[in-house]
Amino acid sequence: MDSPSAPRVRLLDGFRLEVPGRDRRSTADLPHGVQRLVAHLCLSLRPARNATAGHLWPDVPEAQAHGSLRSALWRLNKVAPGLIEVSGSALRLAAGVRVDVRELNDWAQRAIAPPVGADDVAVPDAALLGDLLPGWYDEWVLLERERLRQLRMQALEAVAARLAFLGRHCEALEAAYAAVRAEPLRESAHRTVVRVHLAQGNLAEGLRAYDFFRTLVHEELGVPPTEQMTRLVQHIPRLRRALSAEPRPLGAAVVRPVADTCPGTGRRPS
């Protein structure tokens, strides 16, 4: 179990290193090379020193890359002693260090394939919804950023569907709209929104969500929704009129669908 006094590395929405007992300014001012070293180890398992040096300093001679790695390790050890363990030729984060990306991975895996009979699915903490290291363009960051984005989208849609099945429609809408905000043109996320509204018995809200997406893809991509999307609402009589009419501008009559306030909270899903 993670200790609240353990160091914590945050990579979503930007790099942050939190070390108990240390002034936050000392970790916020870490050189970018040191930040890249910590981030690389958070996203890897047990990379060899040679591989780490090559990944982080690919455009310099090998000897210089190894020198930069030694310098980064020395600087990091002054601010966060013991954060990284060196075992032979391998590097790794010390046991117990908490990493938000790993927490996101764990949550997503539970959401997509929950244990049999488990009902404890939930919308993730907002801290797990940011992009991985925005503004970083290293190839190893770009690949992991896209992998995490796809994993999170699938997990949010899976959580929304499961919460709707359990009758927890307000929470289901929170998860579905989180997916829509992350990728506004992703049809499967909008289909999830429509399904939740229909499961709650809100035919008008379901059709309004459909209209919103139909107008969006018409304006942005010049295409209609897929048949899979249209089938969700084809039983609603008003749909015949909606399908025969030209999509309206998003800023006009069609507005973003809004869910009912959450019972007991008085607030709308974020």
What is the average of the pLDDT values?
85
Distinct helical segment count? 11
Described by the principal axes of the CA atoms, the overall outline is elongated
Write the CATH fold name of the largest domain: Serine Threonine Protein Phosphatase 5, Tetratricopeptide repeat
Largest sheet: 3 strands, mixed
Straight-line distance between termini: 30 Å
CATH homologous superfamily of the largest domain, by name?
A: Tetratricopeptide repeat domain
The ordered H/E elements are: EEHHHHEEEHHHHHHH
Low-pLDDT sequence parts: 253-261, 263-267
User: Structural class, please?
Assistant: mainly alpha
Word description of this protein:
This protein is mainly alpha-helical and 270 residues long. The chain has 2 domains: 8-96, Arc Repressor Mutant, subunit A, CATH 1.10.10.10; 99-244, Serine Threonine Protein Phosphatase 5, Tetratricopeptide repeat (Alpha Horseshoe), CATH 1.25.40.10. The chain contains 11 helices and 5 strands. It has helices at 24-28, 32-43, 49-56, 62-79, 100-112, 139-165, 169-182, 187-199, 203-221, 227-231, 239-244; strands at 8-10, 16-18, 84-87, 90-93, 98-99. A 3-stranded mixed beta sheet has the order 2-1-5. A hairpin with a 2-residue loop joins strand 3 and strand 4 (90-93). The chain starts with 7 loop residues before the first strand and ends in a 26-residue tail after the last helix. The relative contact order is 0.09.
Which key terms come to mind for this protein?
about 270 residues; mainly alpha; Arc Repressor Mutant, subunit A; Serine Threonine Protein Phosphatase 5, Tetratricopeptide repeat; 2 domains; three-stranded mixed β-sheet; two-stranded antiparallel ribbon; 11 helices; 5 strands; about 50% helix
